[in-house]
Each structure stands twice: as structure tokens, then as C-alpha cells.
Amino acid sequence: MSATAAGSAAVSAARTSSAPTNFWAIWNMSFGFLGIQFGWGLQMANMSAIYEYLGAKPDEIPMLWLAAPLTGLIVQPIIGHLSDRTWSPRWGRRRPFFMIGAVLSSLALIAMPNSSALWMAAGLLWILDASINVSMEPFRAFVADLLPANERTRGFAMQSLFIGLGAVIASAMPWMLTNWFGVAASAPGTIPTTVRLSFYVGAFAFVGAVMYTVFTTKEKPPENLAVFEREKAATAGFAAGLRDIVSAAKEMPTTMKQLALVQICTWLGLFCMWLYFGTAVATNIFGATDTSDPHYQQGVEWGGVCFGAYSAVTFLFSFFLPHLSKRFGPRTTHMLCLLAGAAGLGSVSIITSPNLLLLSMVGVGIAWASTISMPYVMLSTSLPTHRIGVYMGLFNFFIVIPEIVASLGFGWVMNTMLDNNRMAAVVAGGAFMALAALLVLRVQVAAETT
Q1: Measured between alpha carbons, how far is residue 35 from residues 57, 65, 145, 218, 286 in Å?
Q2: Residue pair 222/92 in contact by the 8 Å Cβ criterion
Q3: What's the sign of the alpha-carbon dihedral 350, 355, 357, 363?
Q4: Which of 335, 341, 378, 424 is the most buried (most CB within 10 A)?
């Protein structure tokens, strides 16, 4: 039996049986994350360099990222609310949002490397980030919809697996195109051809992977369709929808509040790394003096290889996460993983060899695998089923708020405290991640998530 047929049959069987969900069903419902992470991976590994190619200074980079998290702050809860209140016998609840987000993201990916000015690149990043968000957060609710509480660790770990795999390919693709396929170098100081081709491939990978999930996985209808329709009617319209979102925020579960501080510190650390790692490798390790120096492209491409390395670790480590969570619990597992990430980012300050950076990325990959799964495992059983989508959207606040803080304030930190030392910013990210590890100890976790 094919993976598609096996997955569809297993999801149908899961509705009427308490037997463990078939592997292929979980594979199919998570496969779209391969494409989503292709988009994220290309963005995180290349956008700061694209900005510098277009003339941005290091202290200007954070502000140029600002539009993206601001959009997520608005889009996520709205999409979550709408997906909670959507139902079509043919397309289901979450899948329409997967498709819309995938098409818009793919168009933005095609346009991005053709940016001719900073304002154009920043605007396209805003569109890309908003479109990815339209697809991504309903995917989180999708797993919680389809799997019982005691199987959600498997579901979110499978998402981590595809996130890692997608990021491995996306992050390292410019380097692979140069070194494996012999793509010629571009004119100094311009966006490289390898980056352009990588974004084009990413566009097709994004829409293809998401559509695979759309056509292989059916959704469960609401348990009581009449009650669902009444709730939908009661929250129809912008004002009613806004009231529902505000009400959900006021009634936020305790576990979610405790995870908020963990997420804020974790993502401050990650954002410091994503903003500056590639350009830090180019300047601090490869010794590039500016974007016209040939070592600059080499360093940025090697930074992408390092991102691919931590993504490969994420892919491999995802196989072990369910077992570790079962043995130690999701809270302890997440704490240890974040400490590994803090050690990885902190170690880059004493490394002078490009190859040794790959060892630092082992810790980062372990932390990333846990960050994209364990918080959602801890959160999911504390949420009411009829509001999973909106709460997953609100939970995204604790990702975009640190991004906004970093965008608004880290340029000043770079200019006045770190002397525009990009590597120092990466090390600061490790300190934030260590703080997040300590804050995990405060989180109260339902027993069934383990």
C-alpha cells in the first residue's frame, strides 16, 4: 500500500479506533512542514546578506526585519480564529489556509532574490513572512486536531523531522550550487545567482509539499456540527471575532503563561543567531572586509552550510525526542536541549576554523528540534479543543514579540555596546537561550503529555 493510501486509511480508522495512529498518517499530516521550512530556511540563512548586498549596515539589519514579526503578531490569532470557525466537507478546517499560504509564499520566494532596493526586499520579506504564517500555525492545530494527547509528541516530533530536513537542503543550497554544480560566481556586491536559484527551487518545494498534505490527509468534522455552526454564527464578523480573540487571551491557561517567558527568551536567542550568524562567519572567520570582498560570499555560503548542519542534527535528533520525552518528561527534555543550544552558540566566540563551527551547530540543532516540538507538546493538552487554532495563534505572540524587541532595540545594542561585532551578537543569543532553559523549570505540565 502506498504512503498516501495508508495514511488516509489510518486517519479514517483513528476516528473509530483507539489503536495507535499509523506511521504514514502522521507522515502525511506533517509532510507540508518540509516545504514551509524550505521557505523559512532560505529566509533565515540569506536575508541579512541580501540586505547587506543592497547596501544595509549591520546596525540597520534588525529594523529591516521588523515588518515580518509585526505582521505575525496580527495575522496569527486571526488565522487561528478563522480556522477554528471554518469547515468544508471537501476541504476541511485547516487545509484551505495551508493552500492559500503556500501559493502566496511561493510567489514571494520567486520575487525576493530579484529585489533591486532595500525597501523592495523588506516589503517582500513582509509578504513572505505573513504568507508562511498563514500556512504554519494551522499546521500546529492540525496535529492537535487529528491526534489524541498521548500521541502528540509523535506528531510534533515528525514535524521537527521535516523541519530539519527542509532546512538542511534550503540552508546549504547556495553552497551546494557553487561547489557541487559549478554555478558561476556573480558580479561582486550583487545578489549571487546561487541565491536566486535557491529561492526558485524553494518556491516549488513549498507549494508541492503543502499540497501533498492537503491531498493525502482528511480532517475530522466537528464533533457536533450544530453546536459548531452556532458558535461560528456567534463569532461571525470582525468585531465578534476580535472579542473572541481577546476573550481567549484573558482566559489563557496557566501552562501557556509559563511557557511564554520560555519562548520569549528562546526566540530572542534564535533571532540574534539568524540575524548575524552568516555575516559573522564572513567577517569574523573568513576575514571579509565588505560585501565586495570574495571572502564575503564564501563566508555567507559557509554560514548556510552551518545552518544546514544544525538542521541535519534537528532531523536526526527528532527520532529520539519521543523516547527522551517519555523517559524524562517534556519539561526536563526541553531544558537540557536548550542548554545544549546555549553551549553551541557560546562556543563560536572561541572558534577560528570554519570546520569547527559545525561542532557548535550540534548543540543548536538539538535545541531547535526541541523548540519546534516540546513547547507545543506541553501546551496542547492545556487548550480547549474548540479554541486550539486561536490559542496556537496567540502562542505565536511569544515568538514575534522577541523578534520585534530585537528589531527595535538590537540595532542600538550593536552600535553602542557591541561595536557592530556580529559574532558578539551570536554569543548574546546563547545567553538568552541559557536563561530560557532555567525558566522551563517553572512550567507545569499535564501528565498525559509525557
Answers
A1: 31, 22, 21, 19, 31
A2: no
A3: negative
A4: 341
